[in-house]
Request: fold
Amino acid sequence: MKRLFQISTALVLATLMSTTILPEDAEAQSALYNYDESKVGPYTLPDPLVCADGTKIADAKAWREKRRPEILELFRTHVYGRSPAKLGKLVHELGAADSKALDGKATRQEIRIFLDGKKGGHCMTLLLYVPNGAKQPVPAFLGMNFEGNHTIDNDPGITITEQWTWDAKEKTSKLVKPNEATRGKSIGRWPLEVILARGYAVATVTRADVEPDYAAGWKHGLRAALSKVGANTQWKADDWGAVAAWGWGLSRALDYLETRGDVDAKRVALIGHSRLGKASLWAGAEDERFAMVISNNSGEGGAALARRNFGETVERINTSFPHWFCTNFKKYNQDVSALPVDAHELISLIAPRPVYVASAEEDKWADPKGEFLSAKHAEPVYQLLGKKGLGTSDWPPVNTPVGETIGYHVRTGKHDVTDYDWACYLGFADRHFKK
Ligand code: GTR
Reply:
């Protein structure tokens, strides 16, 4: 009864607030959701090593040939939707390279990648920093940013790009050029100089370049650009959503990195925070060229177990962000136990590659424990493939990173990307990439 009341109250609120609910609003409404561990209730997770027909997977070959493709298909059909195959050729335009960026520490370059394969077509701008003076191709971190490439650093050489945004007052889409004052706004999440000094390149692209993040944003995004009828597209129940579109864009960034002599595309760690962490996990599952995947506070629809009734729910995410997942995912709003997959299987799709799941203690909306548990329940797949996973079955104390091929930590503090997180990721990447 209480749950019913919570659900209907949430629905009324979500309807009142119409389309997109911002993270801050989500927190404000979080009183409607469960934060009490004793009220999580029982749930049964699907076994990543048992096929739909009941066959038990006993070796790496059967995992690769039978179960992995099956789980991937289930996520495509029921959660993220089906993305198109990559285009035949990569079409891009190089901006000028500045070899004296960041006081000469790095070479900066912007690359315009035409996602629909046509010069002048749907374009995302990849911003790349490569540390100067490396004798060999360097490993890289690739991550999507929220509000524009120019927000990741104060570097005046970064282009401020226009992006489609939602004008809530006028209820219409507008092409807006972010203000100069927003330069460096997210610098705290991107400790560029630290990462470069450790010998890694950094590549980033902004989400709106691939697909603007609001319910009608797809009309100005990649999904419309790749559809024959553009903004008139009627989506099928298993067509891709925005999360998959962002992931697809990240794969195109990797296509480009493969063309560079100074970056080692076989050592690219894909990193994403929150909704972009969901996109990183999905991109890493779909595209096995990504050598490592890092999920920073990705929560519901990312690393957190959907079946755990704690923090954000499937119904809530589908209501607040109807454009993120495929239409089929909404079928599970009222009955998440019917979902044929759960987040531990998303993590298992990354196996045997290193994956890092990070939580924040105060980020209860993302269900930190549920994020840990999905990492833990992915471990049997890593073990089957001959890798050590987490190496612990207990949720570790705060600020105590654990794991070998599956890394995990829960740090003190809020939903964010901090220097502490980066220190853990850099250590993890060093261990796997610099053996
Ligand atoms: C929240 C959303 C989360 C998370 C977050 C973010 O409002 O409910 O799933 O993705 O936004 O991306 O910042």
Remarks:
- The pocket of beta-D-galactopyranuronic acid is lined by residues 23, 26, 274-275, 299-300, 312, 317, 320 (CB under 6 Å).
- The chain has two domains: 4-80+298-415, 92-271.
- Residues 92-271 form one domain.
